[in-house]
Input
Amino acid sequence: MKTTLLAAGLSTIALTALADTPVLTVLTYDSFTSEWGPGPAIEAAFEATCACDLRFVPAGDGAALLARIQLEGAASDADIVLGLDTSLTAAAAATGLFVPHGVTASTTLPVDFDDPLFLPFDWGWFAFVHDRTKLPDAPKSFDDLAASDLKIVIQDPRSSTPGLGLLLWVKAAHGDRAADIWGALADNIVTVTPGWSEAYGLFLEGEADMVMSYTTSPAYHLLAEGDDTKAAALFDEGHYMQVEVAGKLAGTDQPALADQFLAFMLTDAFQSAIPQTNWMYPVVTPAAGLPDGFDSFRPAKSLLLSPDEAQSARDAALAEWQAALAR
Amino acid sequence: MASRARPLGLVAPALAVLLLALVIAPLAAVAARGAGLSLGPADWAAVRFTLVQAVLSALLSTLLAIPVARALARRRFAGRGLLITLMGAPFLLPAVVAVLGLLAIFGRAGLLNSGLAALGLPAFPIFGLQGVLLAHVFLNLPLAVRMILQGWLSIPAERIRLAQSLGFGPAETFRHLEAPMLREVLPGIGLVVLIICLTSFAVVLTLGGGPRATTIELAIYQAVRFDFDLARAAGLAGVQVLICAAAAGAAWALVRPAGFGAGLDRETALPAPGGWRRVADAFVLASATLFLLAPVAAVALRGVPGLAELPPSVLPAAGRSVLVALASAALTTVAALTLVLAAANRPRPLVEAAATLPLATSGLVLGTGLFLIVQPFVPPMTVALPVTILVNTALTLPFLFRILLPEVLVLRADYGRLADSLGLTGWPLLRWLVLPRLARPLGFGAGIAAALSMGDLGAIALFAGERQATLPLVVQQLTGAYRLEAASAASLILVTLSFALFWACDAGGRRAAA
Output
């Protein structure tokens, strides 16, 4: 009881102190706001220009974000939602809670992308990551991988966005053959984890030869740890992309500030923070260029289903996946 | 004692109703946001798998704990007290940390399989049902051992001496003293482990090996996160609560009081038979120690290298976590004692249910429901800490209740009439009878409540504010940012603090009891 009163008291003091500074609330995923994520640098840069208080509210991972805005509905305090990906945006658009962002900009995205409600802020290619000293000849396709006796660890599409990304990757690359690919991959899959970090941890512990991650994962090891042994296997059929987007909520009480933030998102101050904190490609190449390692693993072909295609393919693909792996 | 405990008589039902409301209201709030209930064949498959793994895990953990607890109860050796405390450690590990510790020993690249490979033997595959069971036994054996050990220690010394003077061998001792004691404590222990394993999420998913190992909790995740089908989530959570209620009913029907009567608190000296039984006990203790402590040592070793690169923000987060844990443990202890004193007077299904069902609720549904309830009134972020403490209290209370209940039943049978005839009520009753005689289980239970509250994260993720990170959240943020070495170090700090809290309460209880 005392804690409740204390919390209520403290929040009242906090609210009074900030009463005259407008507050922009951005709902995002946990790792974006952490001190190792892009959040702190972006907050400082935006607050230097906006005479406002930028608050990031963490809400779990990308999928949790969508559930959160559906829970809050029109009553949400948030002005902007940042961190959905294109496998979730169709469902997000269907809530009717978002309004057009009105920004037109050319981006570094290797595919055409034009969504009136959601503006991309970074992107990446999914890939299987391995240690090149232990695995010098990585497979060059899903068929290669399935034919090998390599052990892989992947994420569950029901609880993780990379897991869902892999599901859509196989579907986008192989269409009707997807079920066969999964059937052939079943004996390569060591286990399926709830999220990306568990899978990546298992891989680093030596429990698997390859892990479902991003083409930019080796760059982290190179730049942060000086370790150049990690590599991403490039597949001939192309690589599915994750495009991360932000959208403006219709219920915002700071529409002008929200527009200002969305425009800021494409400036150098925001974009230059992305590569070495979020370990994704910025949508606008920073003035200083891309850091080392970001050009090491560039797939020749990029795959991306439109949000509607991804939404309609999802349930059938999930059923195929479950049937193939439960055998 | 029965008729005098009137003030408690009013408080306990109120508490029970509050606890039940905490289980049911979020479920109802979630259900109310959905429309229609539809559980498909995949959901029922998840229910089946969940039940199978939970029942097997509970049976294995409980049965394997019996020889370990017996060896600890009847042998005396240097470092016995320390060993008992250390063996509690796995139960206090956060699931993800425990999995990594187990993999260091039993994984593909772990010690066991490296050894097997060197001997030319086939590898032990950890991923699959066997891995899930291994992890659940690893996590729950410590709790079962400690709870059974309490039972052994509660056999009065006079009965043991009587048995010795009657010339009982090990077989008769087992039949007349140990079996009745086990009959009294095992159902409750099995129930707690069963319910923990019913709601286990990260362990089952990570070690399960794929969609064959889909649990109810994962189906709830999918329903909330990916389908936003709240009716289905509430339906699944309801099924989980019903299974738990049925298990609680079964356990309740199985319990029989041992009826040893009061003793004079002489030092218990269980007969310690020699010969092969001595060798067997030594073997049991050595294997249990190796099985329980090798993965814990692996966790510690993994954490040390990253300590240097830990960010300064770990300190305030750790402080916040310790405060939450202490507040939760204090609340839980008071609430559990109140409920258990009420339940011991006469059978009270309401109190029993209220003290068991919180364990069965899905963390995600609980968090989501509370969020829906709180949101219209205050911004959820501002009540993150109070909600965390409330949820921790509800989720750890069942452990304390189960630990205290057998002891309070014995206390009532042995001293109830004496207390009544002396007119002991209220505070004097607590001060002179209840607290001194329950100090040991109270300390142990408070330690468990504090340690578990350090690690709890799932239910309150929705309430997480911008600057209120607790230690588990920092660990999660570090792993999400590739910083696995720092994350291991932060996990090590989390585990060390949990263990220190547990040790302080447990040792405090034992000292007060001595």
